[in-house]
């Protein structure tokens, strides 16, 4: 019996070593620092190895649907940046957990439950992509270099491996989803899935479509529509808009640098908008808290430095402006806490300080436009949901409308209000 036991221990240790070396690990998280008691949702964290010799270790948070995990759809959610952690969407946007930003006292933030989480109806994987984002890391220096096309393939490989480790979800309806710069990767990953399925690669993925929120599709369209949008919402005058429209020949992005009249027209517009919060024009732009540039590259539209160094925040606590980025600061307190990283089963020594948005990635933007991907999926009849915020100057809804029109689709329903509980909640 002693020999059998010793052999089993050796075998078990070998299996664990192979599992780690294969870059795959997963753990159920039942409790989290900041939340009192057992979590009311099923949270799993883990790593999936991709790339040569699994040198790239992509970290993820997976939360089961609070409705019926066996039949509800599975979403792979990709944040923007590139370089913004999946934790950001989990706690600030669509996940079931949120930080208590009201009663924060500078210590470990408390965790609250979000009543309108997307996990009420879906299983969601939040991924830290590309490598170097959040808790994702590489075992080699070269592994930290990434591109749009490499990320799409890595995320596809990640998803295949994840489903092999979670065979109970292979037949669930699958949607790829994401926002901001992640919106560019969404149709690219969907295309990898489509090609993999057509080639008979295993496991077959039950792709139904994809979702893009305020995402990047084609810079020539998305960036160019910022000027018409600024005019439409009265940020610039008719005169400024007409001057730019004529002198730039409606090409506000990558315009001729020798065109002095266009440059001067755009400079006047830039002076009108450079103190605004690009992501939400009604929210304050705060010194040191609002990063520059935004992940859509505002400098692709205007040539001037979009600086806010002269803006000052009120000194008294009562008069201070509310800033969304102050809420983001809570994630740094939480995710860098050793007890939190232990609870999340983070591999020690794999990253330095955790950041919500890593702006120092070695990343090449090598896919200019993904408009052709949208056309292919539309022609094949996949379900696609595209949505935008109407106060977003970085990713304007006008850019989205323009590239959708370029697809020459048949319109089934005209522009109309979308109601929730008897109130207009948006327009479709």
In short:
The chain is of the alpha/beta class and 428 residues long.
Question: Could you characterize what this model shows?
Answer:
The chain is of the alpha/beta class and 428 residues long. The chain has a domain of 287 residues: Alpha/Beta hydrolase fold, catalytic domain (Rossmann fold). The chain starts with a helix and ends with a strand. 37% of the residues are buried.
What are the salient characteristics of this protein?
two-stranded antiparallel sheet; Rossmann fold; 428 residues; nine-stranded mixed β-sheet; globular; disordered N terminus
Number of strands: 15
**What is the H level of CATH, i.e. the homologous superfamily of the domain at 24-219 and 337-427?**
Alpha/Beta hydrolase fold, catalytic domain
Reading the helices and strands in chain order gives: HEEEEHEEEEEHEHEHHHHHHEHEHEE
- Give the low-pLDDT segments: 3-21, 288-294, 302-314
Average residue pLDDT: 88
CATH level-1 class of the domain at 24-219 and 337-427: Alpha Beta
Shape assignment: globular
Strand content: 15-25%
Structural class: alpha/beta
Assign the CATH architecture of the domain at 24-219 and 337-427: 3-Layer(aba) Sandwich
CATH topology of the domain at 24-219 and 337-427: Rossmann fold
């Amino acid at each position: 019996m002693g020999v059998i036991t010793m052999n089993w221990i050796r075998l078990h240790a070998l299996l664990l070593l192979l599992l780690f070396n294969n870059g795959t690990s997963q753990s159920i998280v039942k409790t989290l620092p900041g939340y009192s008691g057992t979590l009311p949702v099923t949270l799993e964290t883990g790593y999936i190895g991709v790339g040569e010799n699994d040198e790239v270790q992509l970290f993820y948070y997976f939360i089961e649907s609070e409705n019926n995990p066996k039949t509800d759809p599975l979403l792979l959610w990709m944040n923007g940046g590139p370089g913004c952690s999946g934790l950001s969407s989990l706690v600030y946007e669509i996940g079931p957990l949120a930080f208590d930003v009201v009663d924060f006292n500078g210590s470990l933030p408390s965790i609250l439950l979000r009543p309108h989480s997307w996990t009420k109806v879906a299983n969601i994987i939040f991924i830290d992509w590309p490598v170097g984002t959040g808790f994702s890391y590489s075992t080699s220096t070269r592994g930290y270099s990434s591109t749009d096309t490499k990320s799409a393939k890595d995320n596809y490989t990640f998803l295949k491996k994840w489903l092999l480790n979670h065979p109970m979800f292979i037949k669930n309806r699958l949607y790829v989803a994401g926002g901001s710069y992640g919106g560019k990767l969404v149709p690219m990953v969907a295309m990898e899935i489509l090609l993999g399925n057509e080639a008979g690669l295993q496991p077959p993925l039950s792709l139904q479509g994809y979702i893009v929120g305020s995402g990047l599709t084609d810079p020539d369209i998305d960036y160019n529509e910022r000027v018409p949008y600024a005019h439409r919402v009265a940020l610039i005058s008719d005169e400024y808009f007409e001057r730019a429209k004529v002198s730039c020949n409606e090409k506000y992005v990558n315009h001729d640098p020798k065109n002095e009249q266009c440059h001067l027209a755009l400079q006047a517009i830039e002076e009108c908008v450079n103190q605004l919060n690009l992501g939400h024009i009604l929210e304050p732009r705060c010194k040191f808290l609002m990063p520059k540039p935004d992940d859509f590259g505002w400098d692709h539209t205007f040539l001037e430095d979009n600086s806010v160094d002269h803006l000052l925040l009120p000194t008294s606590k009562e008069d201070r402006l509310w800033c969304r980025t102050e809420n983001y600061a809570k994630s740094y307190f939480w995710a860098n806490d050793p007890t939190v990283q232990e609870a999340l089963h983070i591999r020690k020594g794999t990253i330095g300080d955790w950041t919500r948005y890593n702006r120092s990635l070695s990343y090449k933007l090598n896919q200019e436009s993904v408009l052709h991907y949208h056309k292919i999926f539309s022609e094949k009849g996949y379900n696609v949901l595209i949505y935008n915020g109407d106060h977003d100057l970085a990713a304007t809804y006008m850019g989205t409308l323009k590239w959708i029109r370029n697809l020459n689709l048949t319109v089934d329903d005209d522009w109309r209000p979308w109601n929730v509980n008897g109130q207009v909640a948006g327009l479709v």
